[in-house]
Amino acid sequence: MRNLTYSRRKSSEKVFSIIFYFLTCNLWLWALYLPLVSAKKKELHIGGIFPINGTGGWQGGQACEPAAQMALLDVNNNKDLLSGYTLKLHWYDSECEPGRGAAVMYQLLYKDPVKVMLLAGCSTVCTTVAEAAKKWNLIVLCYGASSPALSNRQRFETLFRTHPSATVHNPTRIKLMQKFGWSRVAILQQAEEVFISTVEDLEERCKVAKIEIVTRQSFLTDPTEAVRNLKRQDARIVVGLFYVVAARRVLCEIFKQKLYGKAYVWFFIGWYEDKWYEFGLEDEGINCTKEEMRQAAEGHLTTEAVMWNQDNRTTISGMTEKDFRMRLHAELSKKGFDIDSGRLPEGYQEAPLAYDAVWALALAFNKTIEKLAEQGKKLEEFSYTNRGIRDEIYNALNTTSFLGVSGKTAFSEKGDRIALTQVEQMINGTYNLLGYYDTENLIMQWYNKEKWTSEKVPQDRTIEKTVLRKVSLSLFISMSTVAGVGIVWAILLILFTYTYRERNVIVLSHPVTNTLMLIGHALCFVSVFLVGLDGQFVSESMFTIMCTLRKWCLSIGFTLGYGAMFSKVWRVHRLTTKNKSATKHKIQPWKLYLLVATLVAIEVIYLTIWTLVDPLRRVVESFQPEFPDDLEEDIRIMPQLEHCESYHNNIWLGITYSFKGLLLIFGLFLAYETRSLKVRHINDSRLVAMSIYNVAVLCLITTPVTMIISSQQDASFAFVALAIIFSSMITMGLVYIPKVAEVIREGNERSDRSSAPDGGTTKEEEERYQKLLSENEQLQKILEQKEERLRQLRQKLEDKNAIRKLESGDDDGDPAAIKVDMVTTTEDSKTKDIASKGGMKNNNVEQIEVLETYYTEPSDSAIGHTPKLSVHTHTPTTTEFELSESYL
Ligand code: ABU
């Protein structure tokens, strides 16, 4: 047993010695072989610029640099690629600062060895580097630059990028806006060229899609004011374009200014890492808690180009997307990133782009080497002045196409990557995939997983509800009812005037003029109804017609109603101012009608010109918005009020008010002047004058007041309606109630004892007066006969006296002659006495005669006491010309 054990030990010692011997010999062999192999491989140097330790912008180098190193290893280990060459990466950190980017680029260029190509990330740095690199015939391949500005081939002659342009988001954004019915959006952007050029592209696309961009706000570092402006402009759907550090500041501001929740939707860029809104709050001096940031971020949408291969196919490197992810995680863990904690390094999303960028340049170099070999040239001969090799690399890269871990990698003629976009939404703190949009084929794949705080899609604006301010229905009905009563009353009074047209009380009040006045008032009452017919009853087109109708109705109504009254006081006034010769004729009614007709004709001509030249139209006055008490309702009430206006409204109103104002003031003057006069043939002149006071005062008050309160529909309507109703009702009452009362008093019999309501003469008195006149004439004839007889008798007496004198020679006075003289003297004194009884002074005699001709009124003194002597004198009585007390 012991021997067996020993022999076994011996044999194992032998095996070990053989293995040791073999290994030792081979190590020597390896030691000799390896330097030979490596001496054969030529190095191709590439420069790398990675943003890693900066404080703003995109620090995507954190994940992209390890990914690039992985690719470098894989490419160098690939036997089919770059045989005889090995790629070597020289890299620096740019911190995503363009100045630093330029500095490291110079270091790469001026430090040996010569770099054949540059890899760069972060748009701001790529812009600087790519613009300069062409001067060194260097191709720049950007793995992390989204700026649309980089698609300018003239400016960036030698630039390629595996990162898609940020413009790929825009068709997706537009598609989403259309999908959710948003046609009013706002933009908030950081002031960087990458975002400016993205917004320019977005604006153009919005214009084509007829989406209104309500405001475009930008900020450099502090977004406070920009966010405030968004709120001010009632922006609800906002596209935000900024780097992640700025995004955190914006989100905090969104929380503070309450621009989140059910009423708002934010579009953010999709390449921020998960939980981006929770990191670095303290370091960056952000004054919001994680919870607040979470609240503000809830529900936002992101759009991003798909940067990871979507299927599980093996890519050019022999890895699937999953393999790559696992390897990357391992590499990142080695670098100290705690992947399991959920905090991924910046640039994690873009890592496949950096990986594929290295593969793309390796493939391009491979092609170039072959091409150059045909020309007897070598890639390692590249120098910064060698344009030929640069062109070969350019052409090779231009035609490179492969399936990478980021998907199909190919470059457009502008050097851009063609990509699919994805849409995500933050629901309960995590990003949920909502769908994809193929911007090339315009195909949307949608999973209907979106969630909104209020269950319904948020509105793109506060819904503005236009509410027409309308006259209150009860007010309209009550005013219209009263106006209706007025119309009925006016019609009844017209019938009354016609029915009792034979009565003195009507005859002597100029019934035709009164009827015109009643028609005028009826029209005014109709206009009350028309003024109240606003948008609640009529359509917009009908409202315009209504404007013209109410203007005509009220204007003609006023002119007829007021004009008829004005004509009466005007005639009364004229009678008192005419000279004796002009008063030989009786009062002529046509003169009253002519005056009314003239006023109406002026009005009609004026209204016709107004209507034809500058017609009234519907003008809407808008008021300050009002908000409903119900906060759930996302609406704003916009009150509006309809008005009737012409383009040159002030001019037309100025003319109207001037003319009517003068007419009213003149009417007032005439009414005042004739306040003490009573005229038999215009028996109601004093009542008409009173009506003129009433109408004039009401009009002169109402017009300016309604102009001031025109924005308050109820007050304005009530004021106008009441002014029309009061003035018309009072006028009709004043002029007609005494007439109606008189007719009622008379009953159906025509009483001889009736007297005029206003103290004027009746027809019976007129007849009596005519009778007395003819009696007077007869008596006058008798008187003439008597005088003739007296004269004859005197003659005879004188003849007799002369004969007697001759016969007796006596020259004394005759008692008969003395008697005749006495009679004559007595008659003269009586005449004078009667004149003084009439109460007239000498200077009134002419006036008395004027009135005699006009009013043909019998004198009380002539009728009763001294008929014989009244033939030559005429004394006016109270019925024809009365100096009464003022009724003012
Ligand atoms: N996806 C990162 C892009 C960074 C940049 O364009 O600067």
From TrEMBL:
Membrane topology type: Multi-pass membrane protein
Gene3D superfamilies per the UniProt record, alphabetical: 3.40.50.2300
Any Pfam family hit: ANF_receptor
Main location: membrane
UniProt entry keywords in alphabetical sequence: G-protein coupled receptor, Glycoprotein, Membrane, Receptor, Transducer, Transmembrane, Transmembrane helix
Membrane-spanning ranges: 15-36, 475-500, 512-532, 552-571, 592-613, 651-672, 692-709, 715-737
Polar residues: compositionally biased ranges: 872-888
Ranges where the record places region Disordered: 747-766, 865-888
G-protein coupled receptors family 3 profile domain ranges (all copies): 482-744
InterPro entries, sorted: ANF_lig-bd_rcpt, GPCR3_GABA-B, GPCR_3_C, GPCR_3_GABA_rcpt_B1, Peripla_BP_I
PROSITE patterns: G_PROTEIN_RECEP_F3_4
Compartment(s) where it occurs, according to its Swiss-Prot or TrEMBL record: Membrane
Name this protein carries in UniProt: G-protein coupled receptors family 3 profile domain-containing protein
Organism annotation: Orchesella dallaii
